[in-house]
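User: quick one, fold this
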Amino acid sequence: MLKEWIVRAETAGGTALARELGTAPIIGQILWNRGLQTAEAARAFLHPEDEPYCDPFLMMDMERAAHRILEAIHVGEQIVVYGDYDVDGMTSTTLLMKNIRALGGMVSYYIPNRFTEGYGLNGAALRQIAAEGCGLLVTVDCGISSADVVAQMDGAMDIIITDHHLPGAVLPPAYAVINPHRADCPYPFKELAGVGVAFKLVQALWQLEEERLYADDLDIVALGTVADLVPLVGENRKLVQAGLLRMTERSSPGIAALVRVSGCEGKAINTGIVGFQLAPRLNAAGRIETARRGVELLTAEDAHAADRIAAELNALNTERRDLEQDILTEAESMLGGFTPDVPAIVVAGEDWNAGVIGIVASRLVEKYYRPSIVLTRQGDVYKGSCRSIAGLHMYDALAACRDTLIQFGGHAMAAGLTLECNRLEDFRCAFANYVNTHLNYEDFTPKISIEALVAPADWTIPMVEEIALLEPYGMGNPRPIFGVRDVRPRTATAIGADGKHLRMEVGTREKRVAALYWNYGELAELVTEEASDLAYTPSINEWQGMRSVQCMADSIMPAAHERIFPDRGILKAVYAFLRELGGADGHIPYSTVALTRRFSRKMGHISRYTMDCALCIFRELGLLVPREQGGWHFIPPEGRLELMDAPTFRRHEERKGDM
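Assistant:
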């Protein structure tokens, strides 16, 4: 897939900022590009450990809520923490429950079942909790949209809402509602995760009870904050930086067990490890079975017990990955006719796991860069998860299709929906029409922000170490990506299990620099034979006591002069090549990369971009059909072919005419 590079320009402001900070010019420019354009703001960003926490009592209803919880603790009233089944919900539940117990309170917790109860407050569950003697229920990471359910419980027990999701027009009629997004809340930082809001409540409790500044359990706070993909700026940056250090040095037994089972023991824990190793294993509990097992891990006080639960979660995560791959494979088999002209993806399956379809939708977006909706049948209805791309507001798109839906909810980039099974085609058409009218063809090319064009050999270890000052990376503070154009790797090798990954040398003869590209080992035989544009992040490799600069590739695509759209002559040559390969049965057992290499050896150089465009045109004309087991099936035409019948070729010719 091609990506459009948005190369940031060097500015006088960035240069001046670097000079004032005493950093390398590239650091000043990156900070400037990210809106940190004064030395004061930049220093606060680079050194969050020096910044104070915001006063928890600036949050609306905080004092009222904290006094009510302490009252319940002092009189021995039963408290229940009501959480959510994702990592943010599990860590929020753990954090609040652990500290209420430390303050002497009687507390238990409740997390709804993803499959039978769904997200948010459940009326039947609340009535049961009240009947069992609960006098005070405190929600974490949920409740702000449950005004009706809270109203039904009036008088049964006191309810305190703590949440970070956007409130609706009417707040729940609870004893207290703590949410930085409340219109009347003066709290200065609005982007806390659910566990961040719970942390502020715990700070308030300890401040009132013992007049001390609470800053413990930051490993738990960081885990939930990173997993929930909130912006890692402001107070979140302070929480996560300190929490990652805690995870590395002296984490709680549960998180330490999670680190061990993930194979990360002894490593400096960063947001990548949290997001791609720890959080998925914890999330697997709520996706496959029950999130209670995740809370049991996080609250474990014994290393042996923690290791046992972590092993269970690891097994669940393996099951989750297998389920995800099975659903993805089945979903992609439904996209056999996918071409660049397809505006959106809507796939539906029977009994697909509802806890996994959101991940599958994200995988489809990553591969095809189209708004993607994955549905699973539950009786007479389909329930689905939606993921969008830049430029399309998913909630607005679903609102435009509301006549075909039972219900829907979400925000710009992700949403959920329910529809009757017999309305599937109506919805699919309505959604595709909406996407077609709100996005242009250019919107289907992902954009990538390039901080600067820097040759890999130009990096030094001190420069890379200075770049690391920008960590922790995440939403709102992405890993900086640099670019180099028209590079031809000196060597390339497929590495790892089954040659899954790619290792290249992209430096000079005088200074060799390794580059790693995960999951693209198949390019090993091709990248040395064509010029490429490489987008990457520099890092430091440590091996046998030696340190060196290496590049972690974000993407590799053919250089501009390799991106030759196939004209009629090239298409004729590729057609003859494919027809010969197909033989009598039409079976062509080669991938696009393998076809590119075979054609180049036999017929002369062709880039994978040119080959990919040619294959796409032949698919649109019905000459090629992808096989489920890999490769292609070639179908000879019955009559004369008209290239203008292929949308990809026609679009190119029309653009050429416009020029």
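User: anything notable?
Assistant: The chain has a mean pLDDT of 94.
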